[in-house]
Amino acid sequence: MVKTKTFKRLGESNFLFGAHVSASGGVSNSVENAFNIGCNSFALFLKSPRKWESKPYSLDEINTFRANCKKFGYNSRTDILPHGQYFINLANPEFEKAEKSYNSFLDDLKRCESLDIGLYNFHPGSSLKGDHETQLKQLADYINKAIKETEFVKVVLENMAGTGNLVGSDLKDLKYVIELIENKERIGVCIDTCHTFAAGYDLLDDEYEKFWKHFDETIGFKYLSAIHLNDSKTPLGANRDLHEKLGQGYIGLDFLSKLVKSDFLTQIPIILETPILKDDSEYGEEIKLLEWVAYESPSEKEFKEKVDDLQAKGSKSRQEQMEAFLKKQKKNVTPKKRTTSAAKNDIANMFTKKMKKSKDD
């Protein structure tokens, strides 16, 4: 058996850089897996993401998880951000399906509390063919119900990449739901950088500050509970949830130099969900990249070399995605859609120019 590469954890970090790690063989294994790749925070699935029901944790597994958190130095109330099953949809207008989602959702929250985990992140779902506002109210009702049936775990809503009936592509959706939550201490938001960018919120150059100003004015920093840190394979406003390795996509590495100067992002989980080809140890490399940008003060020359290297690695993928993006926009041009399509083509052209300028610089 090939030994997985390990990375030393940086103990004195104001940023809780981490990754989504495997819980294979038992949820307690996730803690050591996270430690071995240098995580200061981590995410995991509490049960199989591929089936609705999983067997309960044994008392031994619960005790081992808690002991591992103490052994490896993780505060389970603040440093761990489990991810809910993707098929949970509390906004589903079909009652039986919504109830099935709620049962899985509540089971997740109770699993968190058995492990003494204080945060729980999930995708807020889709209103499908229902009235969007009505289904947002339903989503909030289910969250209120679950909060009453549990003791302390904070429910963290994630923003999304798509449009239309998908909840959370527009930050106003999340604001609307939060306003309906009775216990505001137990609701929060996780911003996924890939989802944000794909939904049309620019994060580059001066737009970075503008986005966070918009977030604060719309939702409020007091609700910001976590970050999913991912680059985007697709250009701005493509509405596709395709994560890319840091620096290789359309968001790029310059974004990170702004992120690590943002004090409001300290002491909350910043979780990598970038693509991995082999095993979790690939995340260790990206965590060290983040720490290099945050704490080692690379020279302008060193930073540019790293930018060029990572952009070169992702060049083929970006080109393929841009071609697919433009092809889709061209196909969708109709008299009614021409204005939207033209705007998205402007976005595509803007990024082509930005990439060329970066290379020339």
How would you describe what is shown here?
With 361 residues, the chain is an alpha/beta fold. It folds into two domains: 16-301, Divalent-metal-dependent TIM barrel enzymes (TIM Barrel, Alpha-Beta Barrel), CATH 3.20.20; 314-361. Helix content is 45%, strand content 10%. It has twelve helices and nine strands. Strands 2-1-9-6-5-4-3 form a seven-stranded parallel beta sheet. Strands 7-8 form a two-stranded antiparallel ribbon. Helix 1 packs parallel to helix 2 (59-72), helix 4 crosses helix 5 and helix 11 packs antiparallel against helix 12 (338-360). The longest helix is centred in the last third of the chain and has 23 residues, at 338-360. Residues 335-344 have low confidence and may be disordered.
Order of helices and strands: EHEHHEHEHEHHEEEHEHHHH
Poorly predicted ranges: 335-344
Q: How many domains?
A: 2
Radius of gyration: 20 Å
The CATH architecture name of the largest domain reads Alpha-Beta Barrel
| Spatial ordering of strands, largest sheet | 2-1-9-6-5-4-3
